[in-house]
Amino acid sequence: MILSELVTNALKYGLNKSGRAEIEVSAERSGEASRIVVKNRIEQDQPIDPISSSKLGSMLVEQLAADFNASVDARTDGQYYLACVHLPG
C-alpha cells in the first residue's frame, strides 16, 4: 500500500500535458534492511512539499511506515520529487 500511494502521488504531480510521466521505482536490499525509492519529475505548476502530515495520502504513508517500523524520507529539488521508504531487517 505504501508503494501504491507513492506511485499515485507521482502520477498526480508528474503527468505532463501529453499525459506522460517520468517515474522511477527502485528497491534495494542491504543486509537485512530494504529501501524502496519512488522518484518523479515534477510537471505540475504547484510545488510539492515533502511528506507532510496535513494530506491524507501522506498521513497514510506515514502510518503504514510506522506499522512496519519503517521511516520515510521525502525531498524535492524543485525539478524532481524523491520519496524513500527505509525498512528495517
Poorly predicted regions: none
- Find the CATH superfamily: Histidine kinase-like ATPase, C-terminal domain
Molecular shape: globular
Helix content: 25-40%
Approximately how much beta-strand content do the residues carry? 25-35%
Count all strands and give the number.
4
**Largest sheet geometry:** 4 strands, antiparallel
- Mean pLDDT metric: 85
CATH topology: Heat Shock Protein 90
Distance between the termini: 19 Å
The count of helical stretches stands at 2
The radius of gyration is 13 Å
Protein name: Sensor histidine kinase
InterPro entries: HATPase_C_sf (IPR036890)
Organism: Leisingera aquaemixtae
Describe this entry's structure for a reader:
With 89 residues, this protein is α+β, with helices and mostly antiparallel strands. The chain has one domain (2-87): Histidine kinase-like ATPase, C-terminal domain (Heat Shock Protein 90, 2-Layer Sandwich), CATH 3.30.565.10. It is built from 2 helices and 4 strands, in the order H-E-E-H-E-E. The protein has helices at 2-14, 56-67; strands at 23-30, 33-41, 71-76, 80-87. The protein has a 4-stranded antiparallel β-sheet with strand order 1-2-4-3, covered by helices on one side. A hairpin with a 3-residue loop joins strand 3 (71-76) and strand 4 (80-87). Helix 1 (2-14) runs antiparallel to helix 2 (56-67). The model has no long low-confidence stretch (mean pLDDT 85). This is Sensor histidine kinase. InterPro entries: HATPase_C_sf. It comes from Leisingera aquaemixtae.
